[in-house]
Design a protein that fits this description.
alpha+beta; Arc Repressor Mutant, subunit A; Alpha-Beta Plaits; 2 domains; 5 helices
């Protein structure tokens, strides 16, 4: 597949609002509705588009306490890494998890209702995972920038 500037522009429009109709997109891109439809299907088939989601307002659903939590494992064996990753994927409060280089092994983005809910998350969920040596948490004071858009 040839990934051209029109495809990039189409992805930018879809990232901003995936509910736009093919007619609206065709007007913006100067293409026919059919051409837009075919390009979207091709981008989906080739794996450029993983999924379509709704971005939920954290405050409206009472989940606006965001915490970044560093996790250090007691050992870096394959068994401990695989076990930790399998278990952390099942925790609903963890929105994102990254395996890192540096002082800590993982960075988690956790979202809960408030400090009491975070404490419960730590005590009942995160620290119940085997092989965790230590954690370090940082609470978000203010979200300065949030984006899930990749620009080309």
């Amino acid at each position: 597949m040839i990934f051209d500037t029109t495809d990039k522009k189409l992805l930018e429009y879809l990232q901003k609002d995936s509910k736009q109709t093919n007619k609206e997109l065709s007007n913006k891109l100067g293409l026919s509705v059919t051409a837009v439809y075919e390009r979207i299907k091709k981008l989906e088939k080739e794996g450029y588009i993983d999924s379509y989601i709704a971005v939920v307002n954290k405050e409206r659903v009472d989940r606006n306490f965001v915490v970044f939590c560093h996790v250090k494992l007691i050992q870096h064996s394959q068994e401990f890494v695989v076990s930790f990753e399998r278990e952390v994927k099942c925790i609903d409060e963890v929105l994102e998890c990254y395996h890192l280089s540096g002082d800590y092994d993982y960075l988690l983005k956790v979202i809960v209702k408030d400090m009491a809910a975070f404490r419960e998350f730590m005590v009942k969920k995160l620290t119940s995972i085997n092989h965790i040596g230590s954690t370090h948490s940082m609470f978000v004071i203010n979200e300065v920038k949030y984006s899930n858009t990749i620009n080309f």
